Amino acid sequence: MVNNAEEIELLAVVQKINNNPNTSFVNLTTDQESNERGTMRQFVEALQKDHELHINCWSQNKSDPPDMFMDIGEKRLGVEIVILVKPELMAKRARIKKHEESGQLESCSETVKWEDIRWPKEIFQKRLKETINKKVKRYAKNKVAIDLLLIAEHEPALSFEKVSCWLPEVTWQTHGCIKSAYYMAAYVPGSNEDGSGGPKIIHIFGDGLDDINS
Predict the structure, then answer these.
(1) Most buried residue among 30, 97, 133, 210 by CB atoms closer than 10 A?
(2) H-type helices in 102-211, by residue range?
(3) 68: CB partners within 8 A, 6+ apart
(4) 71-105, pLDDT tens digit by residue?
(5) What number of other Cβ atoms are within 10 A of residue 144's Cβ?
(6) How much is the pTM?
(7) Backbone φ and ψ of 30, nearest 5°
């Protein structure tokens, strides 16, 4: 159930997208490596703040996979990053953008609606499993092993509090090519001591990073 404040915020986002199809929830640039570094930086910050893990260093892998390397203690972990999105929303926005680029935005019959950006539990769980399974198939086919898969999202309509309740309901099979998986929301309001927002993470399955140095 969405309260009035959340509905007002979502409607504002919808209006923003319809006024400018280039608006991005994910705040990505065309530079994929830059996007990956920004996401990894947020992940490391969350690990150090909420899990009190000391990250010796992290770096980008120029010959991925994995996208990143992260050193904890004497262990170097390979981290692969994927962004959680709704493909159907991305496709609709692409069609609207096409009309805008051709100077025919006013004649475009499609608009982003409030329902398009909402994340019901069933949709979230389905998209998350699809995202992970897609990576599993790719790694298995290429005989690649990943220490940690990071599923990141920047969706304003996806409540972190709800996600933390929905994740335990999903049954995960053991994935030999993925040792562990974590979920990260890039911005959770009130997650910092001063009341401001910041990244927060949830362990999905596999080896937990909290046990690395134990």
Answers:
(1) 97
(2) 114-117, 121-142, 160-166
(3) 36, 40, 58, 59, 60, 61, 78, 79, 80, 81
(4) 998 899 999 999 888 887 777 777 777 766 777 66
(5) 16
(6) 0.79
(7) -80, -5
